[in-house]
Amino acid sequence: MSQPRVPGGDENTLELPCGETIGVGELDLGMREFACDCGETHAVVMDVHPPERFLPDFLVEVLREAIETTSEEMPEFDTPHLLGVVLEEFPDRVVAHDATENADVGYAMVWVTAFNSRRLHEIVVELVVELMEHAVSHADDDEALSAFEAEMVEFDVSEFVDQYRAERDLEAEDPYA
């Protein structure tokens, strides 16, 4: 696992949720998490990481069709929207950094969480399920809502994440796996 450190003299640093700081240039595109000096492991997500890092292709397509974004810069539902939901839910446990002016890093946005990458994966799935339940509740179809809720009683987020991560082989060298 990578262990970024603050490079000497780099004023472009990021303060982490734990209070430690790192240089934004130390976060590379293949990084999903790192062991911090605080003793914890922090998840790292970049705007260039596809949402399929967390969710199956078919679900990402459904979300893209169903969710209208208001951003001209990001008109299609993508990773920044997922992390925006996480940031909204856990504002003190997620740090976002806009690196659009820093051409050296290879990403425009980065999020570092107080959670490790597996726990962040679970949180993303839990929040998407809540989003879906909210959407179904607005459909004015009590049968659909009841059916959805019945399905979700059987849905085990932890088991889903285990299976999905094994299927996607998140330990592979490919940063987009």
Give a verbal description of the structure:
It is a single chain. With 177 residues, the protein is an alpha+beta fold. It has helices spanning 57-66, 79-89, 117-137, 142-154, 157-168, and strands spanning 13-15, 21-23, 33-35, 41-46, 94-98, 109-113. Helix 2 crosses helix 3. Residues 1-11 have low confidence and may be disordered. The chain is globular, with a radius of gyration of 17 Å. The longest helix has 21 residues, at 117-137. 38% of the residues lie in helices and 14% in strands. A four-stranded antiparallel beta sheet has the order 3-4-6-5, with helices on one face. A two-stranded antiparallel ribbon has the order 1-2.
Please name the defining characteristics of this protein.
177 residues, alpha+beta, disordered N terminus, DUF5815
Largest sheet: 4 strands, antiparallel
Helix % is: 25-40%
Number of helices: 5
Distance between the amino and carboxyl termini: 16 Å
The SSE order reads EEEEHHEEHHH
> How many β-strand runs?
6
Q: Sum up the overall morphology in one term.
A: globular
Tell me the structural class. Answer: alpha+beta
Strand order of the largest sheet: 3-4-6-5
Question: Short description, anyone?
Answer:
This is DUF5815 family protein. The protein is α+β, with helices and mostly antiparallel strands and 177 residues long.
Write the layout of secondary structure elements.
Blueprint: E1 13-15, E2 21-23, E3 33-35, E4 41-46, H1 57-66, H2 79-89, E5 94-98, E6 109-113, H3 117-137, H4 142-154, H5 157-168
Antiparallel strand pairs: 1-2, 3-4, 4-6, 5-6
Helix pairs in contact: 2-3, 3-4
